[in-house]
Amino acid sequence: MYSYDDILSSLDDLPHLACILKEKSQMILPDSVFTHITKYFLNQPITIEGLAVQRNLYGRIRSSSLDQDEFNLLIQNIQHCLNSNSQDLIKPFLQYLHNMNRLLPNNFRDISYLCATLLLPYGNKNIIACILCAYLEMNARSDTRYDLIINNLYENDDEDEDNIWLDQLTKILIENDQQWLRKHYLERIYSKKLLQAIDTHDTENILNINVRAQEEQVQILIVDKINLTSISSFDDLHSKLSSYVIDTLPNQSITESSLYHLLSSSTTNYPYDLHVLFSCLLISILDPTNYSSSTLRLFRQLILLLNNYYIHQHDLFDDNRFRITIVFLVSKLLCEVHRRRSQSEHEWYRLHKDVPNDHPLPTFDFFADLLGLLATLCYNHLDCQQQVQQVSGTIEAILSMTQIDLNQPKSQACVIWLLKCLTEINEELRNYIKQIK
């Protein structure tokens, strides 16, 4: 059993003190202990061991507010760690900051978010994700830097990492996509006229509109050293950090790679603008000069999400207009990929009677994805079945996909299933297909 004196006497052995405080994390400490330890660290250099002690000290229930010395120590730690070249300090600093954040007045509760945003380029994804989850669950501010968060935390695949906080953050980000998907991706990549046509389901003009917005170069987040030497108060520190994050760091367009990794992290959460995003990607792929593997990879992930969306009947409360628009666009894309394969236009789309040299190609089983989605959309929906028939050449394109193609091994089975979904309650379409055969 440790007494308060035992804790204070361990200040000459910081690793041991950190272990004691962690072991006794449920122990309620008087303010005098916090004050004594704070005064000690105010006169010491900032070290990993010292931050570990402070992290474990504040990782417990405390009813009283921070005193001025504790605010001064917090300022000192932030000043040093944000401008330090030592990445080893960042992890314990962020953990300490997360624990301190609970004790701050409400108007300063975003301080950990601001610091975490500035430290995004230095790793520690799990801790930063934890801080961001706490922040986003309490805030819905329009100036939140979703662009920096998504581009830095999701640029690379972390399948091998056990990151429960990143999983939770993914769920929150997808649920909040109305705050960032259009602002930081759709409106930066695609023209306003195209987005308006998709929003209004203008299928007559949707394919005759300039797709791309004005090109913008994606800037890598580089955080210069912040001048925090002349800080007069914690309020002054908070204002400078807030201004730097919101106004100084350049706005970015979210990358396709980051968006792919974010959306592939969950198959049960659906962005509000899923249909708009899907439509934009499909229309860009319709461009016969667009052979971007990153665009195609993201689009195929959206096919999976949209398929799950309709299988689980998340469309029960909408007016079905998006379903019809998607059917129209998928039909157009099936006609286009059929044309590309017929003309052997590109290695990705030509008929492969032998296994491709670069197997698997980015389009491996792509036809099956499209056919499966169209089957889901058309099952028991007569209006969708009629839409497929109205798009000239779609039925012929579907039937052509029964050819043996080693780059599209599942397409034959998917054609059979799609034809069943198209004709089960549609005798007119069934007779039309018989005539073609």
From TrEMBL:
Native organism is: Adineta ricciae
- Which InterPro entries does the record match to this protein? Ataxin-10_domain (IPR019156)
Q: Which residues belong to any copy of the Ataxin-10 domain?
A: 369-436
The protein here is known as Ataxin-10 domain-containing protein
Any Pfam family: Atx10homo_assoc
The source's domain of life comes to: Eukaryota
